[in-house]
Amino acid sequence: MLAFCCATPAPAAPSDLKPQAARGYERYVQLTEERMKLELAPGGTFLSVDGLPGAQRSDVYARLQRGEVTVLRLRTNDPAGSARTPDALIHHWVGTIFIPGASLREVIALLQDYDRHDKYYKPEVVKSKTVEHSGYDFKVYYRLMRKKIITVVLDTDYDVHYHALDAARAFSDSHATRIAEVEHPGEAGERQMPPGKDGGFLWRLDSYWRFADTGRGVYVQCEAISLTRDIPTGLRWLIGPFVESIPKESLEFTLQSTRNAVARANLHVSQ
Question: Is the pLDDT of residue 78 over 50?
Answer without folding.
Answer: yes
